[in-house]
Amino acid sequence: MGYTYDELVSLAISQLYKGGAFLMAGKQEKNPMTIGWCQFGRLWNEPICAVFVRHSRYSHALIERDGVFTVNFPMDGSWQKALGFCGTKSGRDVNKLEALGLHTVPNAAGGVDSIGGNIIRFECKITGKAEFQAGLTYLRQDIRERFYNPEKEAGSDGDLHTVYYAENLHAEWRKE
Ligand SMILES: Cc1cc2nc3c(=O)[nH]c(=O)nc-3n(C[C@H](O)[C@H](O)[C@H](O)COP(=O)(O)O)c2cc1C
User: Is 0.90 surpassed by the pTM of this model?
Assistant: First the structure.
């Protein structure tokens, strides 16, 4: 059965807060990283997907280099181990796809390949980016301390996020 883009977004978001999604970056490396935050909406009158990636992540370097990524939303409960692994191991140290025995689905529009299996996948191309401002002036103090504490996170700035805004190249839910 075919789904519209809006239906896929709504189904994907309903799964996101159950354990996260995989952001896959690196056209060659295919490095999946667990993400907890992903926003869909409209910007410049177009549908966009926004992801938030800290400077220290290997994924950050891959995204900066290639300008494309996929967001992969697991659609059943069998992905908890993989989400845990990809949220704690860095692709600098381990090939996460190989370690987990995951296969990939080839990209459909020149972007990054996605993860195979019961996954809603969005192939994305970056159209804009924004850096969280040093000092985080507007952010509530308790959130600043929780998420950007220099003693817990890499770097003296607390390892700020880059926001990547991306247009959708292709979206599908193939359950194989
Ligand atoms: C549930 C969960 C959600 C996460 N969400 C994000 C996120 O939105 N952005 C981010 O930069 N890191 C996030 N992380 C941390 C990265 O997944 C983790 O640091 C990962 O090892 C980085 O992999 P990489 O170095 O291969 O890019 C999350 C981790 C978990 C467990």
Answer: yes
